[in-house]
Structures are given as structure tokens and as C-alpha cells.
Protein: MULE transposase domain-containing protein
Organism: Aphis glycines
Amino acid sequence: MQKIPKSLEEAITQLFDDRENIITNTGELFCHMEETSSPVLFTCKTNLELLKSTETFIQMWYTIINLCLRFDIDIQNTLKYSNFHFDFEKSAHNTVRNFFPNCKIMACRFHLGQSWFRKIQRDIETIFYSWIFTFGSPTDNFKFTDYKLNNISSDAAFSPILWATEPSTEARTTNGPESFHSHYSAHIKQQNINKPRKEQEENIVFIINTWEKYKSNEISLNDYLLTLGPRFCVKKL
């Protein structure tokens, strides 16, 4: 029996040291930590597989719809033309289209950027060669461009129609708690606790105004990209 930890650091160390022994009643590893500084994840392989199962999403929607009907709420009619925000989980997309065929699916831009960044971090050499090729030097390394073509092109699993829309102030993320509290508190409180920073507001206005210039043919697509690109360069901390 381990002693009761006296601090957060001691608790994390205990979890890390004993993580191989923390298992489910079916023998699956339940505590996942790469190192003591990593987030502590409690789940198992079975749970993760269920998240990707179309059947899981179908049962979820059947439960929600039947519960609403008990209260005389026809959710399938109420939400039939609604926008649904998801990450890039194909099973979730297919299921909601089955129940709401006229809905619009809007994929999370945060998760899109996150997946690109992770791919770049894993294949930094590939990205370097891609840039060299762009500027005229030949290369046969197309891993990153193939990744984008196979996953987010018009003919791929996640068409740009899911994530590439005109700029707006609407939240395009599935980061529920942050998004919910940010928008909800604006309606119920006078204080602007979660109000976007001035720089963020200025950027949104700038993007929308630049987009409107492109739509009205005041600037070309190339000018649009050249205008926005330098404004969102990586900054040194």
C-alpha cells in the first residue's frame, strides 16, 4: 500500500512509477504517461476504439433523439438545417449526415492547424525539401504534400468545404469549454472577462476587410495571400 501523497508532485510521481500496474478489470493498461511532466491520461484501448466506431455515434444520436421525443421535442426537424461543429472524425461526420441529411458540417480549424503542426514537427526535413522544390530546386520528397492531398483536398476524406470558408467572427473550434464560457459569459456578465484581446479583435477585422476586398475584385488572390501571410508570421517569444 503506497503512502498518501503530500503534494501534487508526489502524486504525479507515484502515478508515473506505478502506471504499468494501473489496469482495468479486463487487464488493459489504464494510466498513460510518457514522463512525469506529461498529462495523465486515464483510458484504455477499448475506450479509444469506441470513439472511432460509427455504431457508437449512431447509438448516441438515437439516445438523444428518443430522449427529446419524450419531452415532445422533434430535434431532427429542429436541427435539420443546422451547422454541426466536429473535429476530423469521419465516423461522426457520416453519422450526423445520416440523421440530419441537410445539415452543414464545419470542421474544427484548431484541430486542422494542430494536425499540420504535428506533421511538420515529425517531418521537418520533408517540409524543408518541399520549400526548396517550391523555389525551383528539384526533389522527390513529397511526403507532406501527399499528406495534404490525401487528407484535405477536394477529392480526399476531408474536403476544403468542411474547413475553408470565408473569414468571420464565428468560433470555428470544438474546444467546448473554452468556447462555451467565452461566448456565454458575454451574455450574462457585464465584465469582459473572456473578451478577445485587442490584437485578436484587430486581426479578425483585418482578415474580414481583406477578404471583402478580394471578393469585390479590388485585389487578386495572390495579393490576398501576400497581405495576410506576413501579418501572421511566427513571433519570437
Summary: The longest strand covers residues 83-86. The chain is about 50% helix and 5% strand.
